[in-house]
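Ligand-bound model needed. magnesium ion.
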Amino acid sequence: MSLLRFKVVEDAFKKKAIAVEAPGKAVSDYYGKYVFNREQMAKYLSGETIKIILNAIDKGEVLNRDVADHVAAGMKMWAMEMGATHYTHWFHPLTDGTAEKHDAFIEYETRAGGRVIEEFTGKLLAQQEPDASSFPSGGIRNTFEARGYTAWDPSSPAFVVDDTLCIPTVFISYTGEALDYKTPLLKSLSAIDKAATAVAQIFDSKVKKVYSYLGWEQEYFLVDDGLYAARPDLVMTQRTLMGHESAKNQQLEDHYFGAIPTRVQAFMKDIEYEAYKYAIPVKTRHNEVAPNQFELAPIFGETNLSNDQNLLIMAIMKRVARRHGFRVLLHEKPFAGINGSGKHNNWSLGTDTGVGLFTPGRTPEENLQFITFLVNTLVAVHRNNALLKASIMSANNAHRLGANEAPPAIISVFLGTQISGVLDKLEKSTSEEAIVVDAKKKMKLGIAHIPEVLLDNTDRNRTSPFAFTGNRFEFRAVGSSANCASAMTAINTAVAYQLAEFKKEYDAKITSGVTKEKAVFDLLKKYIKESKAIRFDGNGYSNQWKEDAKKRGLDCQTSVPRIFEAYTSEESIKLFTQTGVLSQKELHARNEVKWETYTKKIQIEARVLGDLALNHIVPVASKYQSLLLDNITRVKAVFNDEKATKINAIDMNLVEEIAERISVIQTEVAAMIDARKKANVIEHEQQKANAYHDTVSPYFDKIRYQIDKLEEVVDNEMWPLPKYRELLFIR
Ligand code: ADP
Ligand code: MG
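Prediction:
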């Protein structure tokens, strides 16, 4: 085994950057080449069909069979010209990543004597019934009633990967419950559209639609694929379960924004070309803080589309990395002691009239609207801070949150001094002085002037899990491997619910004869007071904050399975059912899935850790211990007692240390296995997950600690697993 380590290290050193050629002269030559976008639609579909599709996308109108048949025929023609022979419904089950089942276009032509033809009808486009019994459903669908439907989502364009036409779809059970991430996301987007449009119309009657926008920043690690293969923990769990810190890691801060290594640069170029072919507008690439950590970010877009693009790019990254002799790690915390990876979700709302609802405006009306949306968001985040945390929580992400480099496991909002100042002033002012209607019936804001461009870069707080950054909020607590839909569904639903509340209260005031401006101001003042506890501009990593947050009544739960309970609290059920995003049954079922997934992840990690500890590390440490003992015996044979004791002193200590550590490892692994066995017989999903959290996972650090200490003393030549310095610095 140790031979394997040195072989892969040697091979990795020899690897050179792979040459990557641009697919065309200008990006516009190949941008969107593999996507059935509006341009392609125009070539393959009639004007009438396109109009109906666009109506379906913009107004949610239902597409009939005839239209679906037309679209299917056009899509098939286009896809076949792109070399596709198969098609698949592409959906997002409640696992990491996406699912697809490929079917060939071929069909027997019954009328023409059974010859084979290519067929793809509207029926096949619109709906499929994958045998879905093995996707997580939280008990909604018993296995004997295994049918689940996938149904076409026309708002995200179809695309071709290799030989397969991929059609983005939702995935629902036979009885209509959502079994995926996309269904509730789409429902939350229509909820926010409805609620936000009603509020935006207070300020501008021309607004007909509000869009939710998402700009994700994908962080990831790259590891040489040979080194990866020699680390069973990486292969099985995507994270290192052991490994002593490298002497140098990120303390010199020389990796962030540093020169990109050539092999990595080639990988990034390749990714960008691929992304452009799928019309994913990637724009930013750079080194991240930790060694071998990088980031990729596109220009933001409509949330559903942007999320599909993120899922697609995660798949593309994995594939392209292999071409370059790398493995991409999307896990939130692949290495202890250095930064983990997140996926900041830049989120905003914008009207069909082109106004960003979180963008400070040029006129008092626009600014009043801006503050209205901002304050309602504060209230929503405050009321639902436990839920928002649940929406980003996972076994993986728990390693990152609360550690010293990531947002803490407490949700708060950073506004920066300028906006905070405006809200403070507004809170204290009387509405008479805050708002002045001048002679020409023009409204004026008496409150502090809001600059059009905020100096967000100087006023940034990297420790905040939910930060206002000038024209959007950055939900930073989202994990790098997560499906953004979870966080985006939660925030859009929470804000939609709150905006509807606001509108209700506003309407009541108007009915009672209050002016529009006063109604808005009175509500904002009330809301600013009420949501104060969520505002925090200080250092989120400090221990003081943990205490303060508790006093403020913010959710401070750190146990992952318990954090999920926020989904089924009375308030959350009200929130999701009233907005029509998820039913109570769905919420409960989805929590079952979360608990089950959590248990399985910890279970797998525990197994891998036990195996590595007992079968890889302990034998090597014993072997080294024997070598030391041999040496000690030989010394004794040659020298007199006094001299031998002196010479052997250090080795004797070492033998003892190793023996002790081996014994602790063996005992702890046995105890961990025992805890697992006890947990395994628990039938209740949440109790089982709690047991895994409380009684199994605490062994991980204890066992790891001993192994990492052994790594420090055992002969380097014998150590079987690639070390951190090799994993992190060879590229
Ligand atoms: P930083 O790392 O400085 O936060 P990046 O450039 O890496 O910024 O990423 C910022 C992301 O935010 C990009 O995807 C960008 O398109 C997106 N973004 C910018 N403005 C908005 C907005 N109004 N709404 C949503 N996303 C936005
Ligand atoms: Mg960034």
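The CA atoms of residues 45 and 590 lie 39 Å apart.
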